[in-house]
Amino acid sequence: MESQSAQASGSPLAGTSPTHAEASNAPGAANPSGPSRWTALTIGGAPLPMFVAIAAITGLAALTGRLPADMIGGFAVLMIAGMLLGEIGGVIPGFRHIGGPAILCLFVPAALLGNGLMDDAMLKAITVTMKTANLQYLYIACLVAGSMLGMNRKILIQGFLKMFVPLLIGTLAAIAAGCLAGLLFGFSPRHTFFFIVMPILGGGIGEGILPLSIGYSEITGEAQGHLIATMVPAALIGNVVAILSAGLLKRFGEKHAHYNGNGMLVRSGEDRALLEGQSEAQALDLRLMGHGLLLACTLFILGALLAPLTGIPGPVLMIVAAAVMKVARVIPASMETGAYQMYKFMSTNLTFAILVGLGTLFVSWDKLVGAFSTAYFVICAATVIAMVVSGFFVGMWLKMFPVESAIVTACHSGLGGTGDVAILSSSNRMGLMPFAQISTRIGGAGMVVIATVLMKFWH
Fold it and tell me: What would the pLDDT profile of 320-366 be if each residue is shown by its tens digit?
């Protein structure tokens, strides 16, 4: 049996609980008033009174010097901050559709630390959890293993074959346009390629920028925090441009029916038959989740073993190993399911917490603010627009529906699974999610590997 379908929108930023605003707008939702109205509110899925109590206890412990300076204290601080900032970013109209939760989780802690407003006890607990215990590495391992092994193998192979040419040409067009725009604004091709274009095409923060930053850091010796602060703005801006492009493509398709597949990618309808072969979601199995955790750790260790032999950083080799094992059917389907379920657990519960930790310790507030400029916006926009336009015309050439081909290609610049959801929602094409996941996951993983290898020789 194949493991989980690519239909699920998993990613470094997917799997979050619905906001209270979304829940209250559901059909049949009650409209409580008075005290019951407050008890019905949730923060990150937790009832508001309970969340306040948990936050108060943690805050009191920090103020009195009793907050454990280990993973217990670190998890509490990171999860509380992540749930709160993620909830706020997820309810702001418009902002939530362009990666609002991720932006707040990264920017707010960086701003607090940069302005000397971070509590020392909380900072120490976060430091131990993120740096000493290397929580980010465990998170990356679970995300890479689960996202690769959790894809339906049939869709992975056949979908990739269908999208290979549009993705390849779109990627080359994006690189060329981005580097050319960079030259016009005085950026070197090397800087534009590695620190602006690659973060946009890397597949998000958890599966793209984090492995890239680790790889770049090991090769160049630069601080990982500086690298993250340099690359994050590009991924965020690229995601916004892709969302806007998808909305414009939807309008274009409505006015020009010949180019519009109304959610179908291939004119022959082959993709409908392909998607009908998806496997159903497996029931949650706690033992399999344990197997998935062990598998993720083992793949990370395998990457570390191969790194000295190849000169390529371990986290990047882990991506290659997971993809090869998936295609070769080396791993039992049950363990693939466990890896996928562990991935969903980590992405649902720890994504915003990890982003808070990254924003606190690895993102320089000054460098983050300094990265935003008119030139930077133009370079990012040129990169994404070139990819979308090429996807449109290559799709036409390959007898695909150009609107759908361009939208799926645009997902190559999405901010992980959440970016895919936002892009497809903007274009009302959620049925393209499996192809979007291939564009984001496989395309992104390929970019991480290629960029790291090139950095080694271009350093």
Answer: 888 889 888 899 989 999 999 998 899 889 888 988 988 888 777 77
Model confidence, pTM = 0.71
3-state secondary structure of 42: strand
CA distances from 374 to 111, 181, 241, 370 (A): 22, 12, 14, 11
Element (H, E) at 262: none
Q: Give the span between the Cα atoms of 390 and 377, in whole angstroms.
A: 20
Find, among 27, 12, 31, the residue nearest to 86 by Cα. Answer: 12
Tokens of 91: 């309810």
Determine the Cα–Cα distance for residues 213 and 219; give it in Å rounded to an integer: 10
Q: Give dist(CA 158, CA 266) in Å, integer.
A: 12
What is the rounded distance in angstroms from the CA atom of residue 195 to the CA atom of residue 151?
29
Residues 25 and 45: their CA atoms lie apart, in Å, by 16
Q: Which residue has the tokens 């361009």?
A: 406
Please give the angle made by the CA atoms of 295, 296 and 297, to the nearest 5 degrees.
90
The candidate with the shortest Cα–Cα distance to 175, out of 438, 406, 412, is 412
Is residue 412 within 8 A of residue 444, CB to CB? The reply is yes
**Taking the CB of residue 308, how many other CB atoms lie within 10 A of it?**
9
